[in-house]
Each structure stands twice: as C-alpha cells, then as structure tokens.
Design brief:
The structure is a homodimer of 209-residue chains.
Chain A: H1 2-31, H2 38-45, H3 49-55, H4 59-79, H5 90-107, H6 115-123, H7 128-154, H8 164-185, H9 188-203
Helix pairs in contact in A: 1-2, 4-7, 5-7, 5-9, 6-7, 7-8, 8-9
C-alpha cells in the first residue's frame, strides 16, 4: 500500500514535470526564452508555483532541461538515423540528412524554424550558459558531418581538396539559413531550392560520381 | 524670431526622435523586439512617455521605423556598393559582397549577428506586420543577386545549368547561417570557412575561369 502510494506520487510527479516541460517548450519555441514568463508557463501547464519549484529551481533550470530535450531529440531522431549504417556511403548519408531536414520543415508547414537556431539567435549575446550549451550541440552536429567527410575521403569518394571541417560548417550554416528563410517566406520551395544547391555544392568534391 | 523658434523646436524634436530610435535600436538588436519594453526605451533614451507618444503612436510604429532604418542601411551600405559599377563582372561583385559581409562580422567581433535575420527568427511566426516587411527586404536582397547571376549568364560567365533564383536563395541562406554560427561560436574563422566554401560553390557555375 505504501509502495503503491509512492509509485502513484512518482507518476503524478513525473506528469507534472512533463506538463511543465511540454507547455514551456511550446511557448519558448514560438515566443522565445526571454519573452516566455514563468507565469505564462504556470498558466499553460495549469501547475501552481509551489509545485513548479518542487521540480525546477528556476526558469533557467527549466530552460536547460528543455534544451537538453531538444538536443537529445535532434541527435537521436534527425541526425543519427541517416548515419546509422556503418557500411553506408558517407555522401549518400549526408544527402539523406539534408532531405530529412527538408521533410521536417515541410511537416511543420514552415512554422517554428529550428528550435536550436532560434535559441542561438536569441541568446548567444545575452546568456553565456545557453550560448555554451548551444555551441556544444552545434559542434557535435558539425563533427558528425566532418567524420562522414573524412570517411568519404578514406573511401576515395571525395578528393583531397575537400576540407571536411569547412564543408561541415557550411552545410550546417546552409541548413540553418535555409530554415530561417523558409520560416520567413512560409514557402517550402525556398528550402527545396537551397537543399538542391547544397547537393550541387557537395558534388564539387565527389570523385567518380 | 518666430522662424528661429520653430527651427529650434524642429531640431530638438528631431534629436528626441533620433535618441529614441538609437536607444531602441540598440536594445532590440541585443534583446529582441518583444523583450524590449517601452520603459526600457524611455529609460535608455532619457525621454518622457508624453514626448515618446509625440513622435510614435506605439511600440510597433517605433519597431517599423527601426526596421526601415536597418533596411535602408543594409541596402545602401552593404549591398549596393559592391554592385555599383555597371561594367563590373557580376561574379566578382557577388564575391565582393560575400567578403563585405564577412568584414562586417569581423568588425562587430562576432557580436549581434544580422539584425534582419534576428528579427526574422524572432517575429516570423508571431507578428505578420514584421514578417511581411522582412520578407520584402530579403526578397530585394535575393533579387539583387539573381539579377547579377542573370547578367553573368548574358555575358557568358556562368553556364545554363545555373538557376539564378535558387543560387541567390542559397547564397542568402548561407550568409545568414554563417552569421548565426559566428555569433554562436564567437569565432570569425567559422565565417571565413563558410565564405570560402560559398566561393567554391559559386565556381561550380563559372565558365572560362
């Protein structure tokens, strides 16, 4: 009976935490971190202030928890799947990833943009804690692409004039910029054109294609 | 004497308006539009509320005036100079423009990012008035590059496989993304690498180089 009560409390506790995270995440994605107040989060999640502080020390701690969720979901659901087959051809994996990012923007109806990019634009100059965490995930993203390009070079798929780190930086930049323009114009054709040009760009380095 | 009084009032009036614009512009560039309150603007510009409403109907009207300033300055000081010589070679003009954007980020010490891109990221989903105005200036920017690419084609500098509009979209996206990554990493080398890769990308289409 005691066991049951504890387990129920834990479940309820987890739900409350999740309700807060879910509401805050949605608000921050649309309105930004600074423009989302704790009161907005409490109202949207229907959670009292005392209950909030049982789960999070501050709005900042809540923000970091949301960032961790976005990062984990991006790495596991968007980035990793395209690179999961160790036998796969690296350039095909990169192209698969470009298409995947395009599809996500299509599914989102060009709304919301890139959650990581939005936070980077908003907070890089005003919040060092967010800036350094965001820099880490962008660095992991770039590293994954850099590795794929090194592997492509080992396999003889790209030439020695391909500087993997610079190419990876530009691919990340191109995607972030394309997502921003798509969010601005509300036109998925902009993103399609950009992804098409990114594939043309990649082909500069491709050997024996 | 009456004339003098009026002229003095006008000058003072203009200075007040400019003081408001200058303070608000600085605050919005760092903290975003929504997170900059009218009280912040009044405190920073040392202008009273009544005086503010003599010059602007609302925070929104102030925002549009700032946007108009940013747009005019971008078009006149960053974009146009590289394309001012009607005899200039269009691809060289585009490369000049890429270098110019890089230099501006270097001068800004990787702080602030692109004022237009920041506003587009913040407001595209929550403020239709800003979104449509921002879409117009990005469209003018892309159009300038598209025109240069058409001219390059007419001169036989690029091949028929170059789709000017798609290339122009990707150049704008690449720059916006590169500026964002530079703001995030605080490392101008990221921007240098991206601009280097954008030039490689442009060279895909170049004939007789």
């Amino acid at each position: 009976m005691v066991q049951m009560t504890i387990s129920t409390k834990t479940r309820v506790g987890r739900s409350t935490r999740e309700a807060i995270l879910e509401a805050a995440s949605r608000l921050i994605h649309v309105h930004g971190y600074n423009h989302t107040s704790l009161d907005d989060v409490l109202r949207e999640s229907d959670v009292g202030k005392g209950n909030f502080y049982y789960h999070f020390k501050s709005k900042e701690e809540l923000g970091y928890a949301i960032l961790d969720q976005i990062i984990a979901s991006f790495l596991a659901e968007t980035l990793a799947p395209c690179f999961s087959d160790p036998e796969g051809r690296p350039l095909a994996q990169i192209r698969c990833f470009l298409d995947r990012v395009l599809e996500i923007q299509r599914e989102q109806n060009c709304v919301g943009g890139c959650a990581l990019g939005n936070l980077a634009a908003e907070l890089s100059d005003v919040h060092e804690g967010f800036r350094s965490r965001l820099a880490l995930v962008f660095s992991a993203w770039r590293e994954r692409l850099t590795e794929a390009l090194h592997e492509a070079h080992r396999r003889g798929d790209v030439g020695g004039d391909c500087r993997p780190e610079a190419v990876a930086h530009f691919l990340v930049a191109g995607l972030e910029g394309a997502i921003l323009l798509t969010k601005l114009t509300k036109d998925i054709a902009v993103m399609e054109q950009c992804v098409g040009e990114m594939k043309r760009y990649l082909s500069i380095y491709e050997l024996g294609a």
